[in-house]
């Protein structure tokens, strides 16, 4: 049968593989051909793995063996073939896969080969996933547009003159261009959700600690989380359930019961069990700024109206300290970046450049290996951690971070989900904001709160923003550009289930 990549989901692909409509090798080959056809223009993938078809062949053997056991009456086919067996995916270039290059899109690690698997990779290998290749990203995950990659920017499949978002832009673009059924990304301040919004796909930032970070290059250790990007909420839920869980190799991981012990968090399960629709809170006081594109706000409000018609209660809420979130993030994150990047010294691993002496080796290696945005964040982080400024900046930022978390917890006493746009604008033009870091940082205004609080957040496509040629000088020839817009849903700690429920209803998956 002809494989319809555009409308394929994990469940559909699984059913076809089990029925024998096509093999895992044929499915992987279809995706590889699509990548070959489109990647030159989009640059979502830095590399397609040479062993992808071999992995697909192993998945076919697992399916055949399960069929043989089921036929002989020694097993159940539905139980023995995991949903993800034979499913092709792409992996962000900062997640280690043993034997493959993991460069974090940096010259510093251009030839670094991983010596072990990240925990999320080990779990996906157990499921029988087929790894197609590694996806492009902002260097060491520092950026909001995937323009900071040492190997060229990733472009938006909806309009290649525009960015795909970042830092997981390659992962989002790969799904949007039918170059993978799902991908993994990392999210430190919105790096899964914002590119998902720009590319018109679904992206999940799980609860902090829900997914192991072992084998993932650290950027901001108290902020980073690994999560899935897919075309549907259901696909993201399937992948999340496969990669979640405690890990002895990562002391920050949590058990499913960690937050259930809290009486406030238990409200989430009571809503789920009762069958009542979750109450959606909207911080409208935070949506009235000049930086929000009116077209984005219109699509967002239309989505809320759609949910209201489905029976959801939409309630205005106030988050008193949310306006400080971006400032807090851009103090905490660079401080953690400064500490985490110290390991790239040209001695232990990665690029080495000879200087006149040991200290010159260090300077020359980092000068040749690290890009401008990485250097900017290291310098900013080192400054806020320096003697005389640590208390004034870093400690104060952490105090406000706790206040923001308390604001969200209080809001969740009266609502079950908090909704905002994912990003204040649709995808912007390549090069439009590269020389204005403040404008670039403002793209994170709605997403950083989930990382500061550790709460789960989901971006779902909710419509298209039309950019008129008369108002957008970049749209040539009088044509209009229809660009995806994402709606972000944030829930209580460990309450991804409510996010999936609302997201599915919004996208018509229920």
Question: What does it look like?
Answer:
- With 510 residues, the protein is of the alpha/beta class.
- The chain has 2 domains: 5-243, Amidase signature (AS) enzymes (Alpha-Beta Complex); 266-490, Amidase signature (AS) domain (Amidase signature (AS) enzymes, Alpha-Beta Complex), CATH 3.90.1300.
- It has 17 helices and 13 strands.
- It has helices at 10-19, 24-42, 52-71, 77-80, 119-127, 169-176, 193-199, 233-243, 266-274, 294-309, 325-340, 358-369, 372-384, 390-411, 437-441, 448-453, 496-507, and strands spanning 45-48, 88-92, 130-135, 155-156, 159-163, 182-187, 202-205, 225-230, 280-282, 314-316, 417-421, 457-467, 481-491.
- An 11-stranded mixed beta sheet has the order 1-3-2-6-8-7-12-13-11-9-10. A two-stranded antiparallel ribbon has the order 4-5.
- Strand 9 (280-282), helix 10 and strand 10 (314-316) form a beta-alpha-beta unit.
- The protein starts with 9 loop residues before the first helix and ends with a helix.
């Amino acid at each position: 049968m002809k494989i319809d990549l555009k409308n394929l989901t994990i469940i559909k692909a699984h059913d076809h593989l089990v029925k024998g409509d096509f093999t895992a090798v044929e499915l992987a080959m279809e995706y590889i051909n699509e990548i070959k056809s489109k990647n030159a223009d989009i640059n979502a993938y830095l590399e397609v793995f040479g062993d992808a078809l071999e992995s697909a062949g192993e998945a076919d053997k697992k399916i055949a063996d399960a069929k043989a056991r089921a036929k002989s009456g020694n097993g159940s086919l539905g139980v023995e073939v995991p949903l993800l067996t034979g499913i092709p995916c792409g992996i962000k270039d900062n997640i280690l896969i043993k034997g493959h290059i993991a460069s974090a899109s940096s010259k510093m690690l251009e030839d670094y080969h991983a010596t072990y698997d990240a925990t999320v990779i080990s779990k996906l290998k157990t499921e029988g996933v087929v790894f197609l290749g590694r996806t492009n990203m902002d260097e060491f995950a520092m950026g909001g547009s995937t323009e900071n990659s040492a190997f060229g920017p990733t472009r938006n499949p909806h309009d290649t003159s525009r960015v795909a978002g970042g830092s997981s832009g390659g992962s989002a673009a790969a799904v949007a261009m039918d170059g993978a059924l799902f991908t993994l990304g990392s999210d430190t301040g919105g790096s899964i959700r914002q590119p998902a919004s720009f590319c018109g796909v679904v992206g999940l930032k799980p609860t902090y600690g829900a997914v192991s970070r072992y084998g993932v290059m650290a950027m901001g250790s108290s902020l980073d989380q690994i999560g899935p990007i897919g075309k549907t909420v259901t696909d993201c839920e399937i992948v999340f359930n496969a990669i979640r869980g405690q890990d002895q190799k990562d002391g920050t991981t949590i058990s499913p019961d960690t937050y259930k012990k809290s009486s406030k968090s238990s409200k989430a399960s009571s809503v789920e069990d009762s069958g009542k629709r979750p109450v959606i809170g909207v911080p409208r006081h935070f949506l009235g700024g000049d930086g929000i594109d009116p077209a984005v706000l219109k699509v967002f409000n239309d989505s809320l109206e759609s949910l209201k018609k489905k029976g959801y209660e939409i309630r205005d809420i106030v988050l008193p300290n949310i306006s400080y979130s971006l400032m807090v993030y851009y103090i905490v994150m660079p401080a953690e970046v400064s500490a985490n990047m110290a390991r790239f010294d040209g001695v232990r691993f990665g690029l080495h450049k000879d200087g006149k002496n040991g200290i010159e080796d260090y300077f020359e290696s980092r000068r040749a290996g690290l890009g401008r945005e990485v250097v900017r964040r290291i310098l900013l982080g080192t400054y806020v951690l320096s003697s005389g400024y640590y208390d004034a900046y870093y400690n104060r930022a952490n105090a406000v971070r706790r206040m923001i978390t308390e604001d969200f917890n209080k809001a969740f006493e009266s609502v079950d989900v908090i909704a905002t746009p994912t990003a204040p604008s649709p995808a912007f033009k390549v090069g439009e904001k590269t020389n204005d870091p403040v404008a670039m940082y403002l793209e994170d205004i709605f997403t950083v709160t989930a990382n500061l609080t550790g709460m789960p957040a989901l971006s779902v496509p909710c419509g298209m923003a039309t950019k008129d040629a008369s108002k957008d000088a970049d749209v040539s020839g009088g044509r209009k550009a229809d660009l995806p817009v994402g709606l972000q849903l944030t829930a209580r700690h460990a309450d991804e289930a409510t996010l999936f429920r609302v997201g599915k209803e919004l996208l018509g998956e229920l």
